[in-house]
Amino acid sequence: MTNKEILQASLLDIVFDKRNKAYGAYALRKGYNARLLTALAAGMSVILLFIFINGMQGSKNSSFITSNKNEGIVIKQIELPKDKPAEPEKPKEVIKQKPVVKIATAKYISNIKIEKDVKSAMTAIGDLDGKAIDSKEGDGKIDDGTEIVNVDPVAPVGNGAIPAEPKQPDFVIQERNPEFPGGAEALKRFLSKNLDTPGELEAGEMKTVKIRFKVDKDGSVNTFEIVTSAGNDFDHEVVRVCKKMPKWVPAIQNGVNVPVNYVLPVIFVGSE
């Protein structure tokens, strides 16, 4: 195919140039566009036909739709009772009745009856203060305006005296640290008597050993531990003497014997 023919030929002719066009591929490709348009037109026709049929059926069904006469919201007006509901009765307060105290009375009669040879003495106005008016004299308490306090009655005992409340024992806190029998001075004497200074110490030289041990609930001493060491010889000597100690007075907490750890410092001092 010449250059001029190429410019005028289609893409399909260029592809099949110098090839066998009779075996069928060339014919299929050449009629492809026409077959595609035919298939598309047929498909669209079927779709439009279905739309038209559905539209006709819908118009028929719509003629049978009846309007609903019950549409809308109905609001009913409810009248509340005009009378105010009765409030619940409040509980009545219990009023304690005060004890009745007899008030002194004074004889005072406003209508004086005069009889022959009978003289009745009138009570002075000053004698009426604090007394109630009565037809005769009477003994009782003078009313001085003091309010009487209602006190619950107490049954008299024996000769009528009110018994005194029993005296409560004083509260004592039962707390105590462990203690060597006889106190700190007895502990110093025990250590001075039993300790031997290992080796020679210069005058004024000091060696301090701190030992921790447990004073058990029964006062026994055990579980020895060196906290501050002054050398093996001094440490062993302190442990040896502490193991010889008698039972201590145990510690008390809330009234109960409890085991407590105790730290004892022992100081060796060189003498001249």
Strand content: 15-25%
- Examine the secondary-structure arrangement and name the CATH architecture of the domain at 175-269: 2-Layer Sandwich
What is the string of helix and strand elements?
Answer: HHHHEEEHEEHEEE
Considering DSSP H and I runs of 4 or more, what fraction of the residues is helical? 25-40%
CATH topology title of the domain at 175-269? TolA/TonB C-terminal domain
Return residue spans where pLDDT drops below 50 for at least 5 consecutive residues. Answer: 63-67, 109-120
The total strand number stands at: 8
Mean pLDDT: 75
Q: Overall 3D geometry?
A: flat
Trace the largest sheet across and list its strands.
3-6-7
What structural category do the secondary elements indicate?
Answer: alpha+beta
Number of helices: 6
Biggest sheet record: 3 strands, antiparallel
At the first level of CATH, the class of the domain at 175-269 is Alpha Beta
**Termini separation:** 139 Å
* C-alpha Rg (nearest Å): 64 Å
Features:
272 residues; alpha+beta; TolA/TonB C-terminal domain; three-stranded antiparallel β-sheet; 6 helices; 15% strand
How would you describe this protein?
There is one protein chain. The chain is an alpha+beta fold and 272 residues long. Among the domains are: 60 residues, no CATH class; 95 residues, TolA/TonB C-terminal domain, CATH 3.30.2420. Helices cover 26% and strands 15% of the residues. The chain is built from 6 helices and 8 strands, in the order ααααβββαββαβββ. A 3-stranded antiparallel beta sheet has the order 3-6-7, with no helix packed on it. A 3-stranded antiparallel beta sheet has the order 5-4-8, covered by helices on one side. Strand 6 and strand 7 form a beta hairpin.
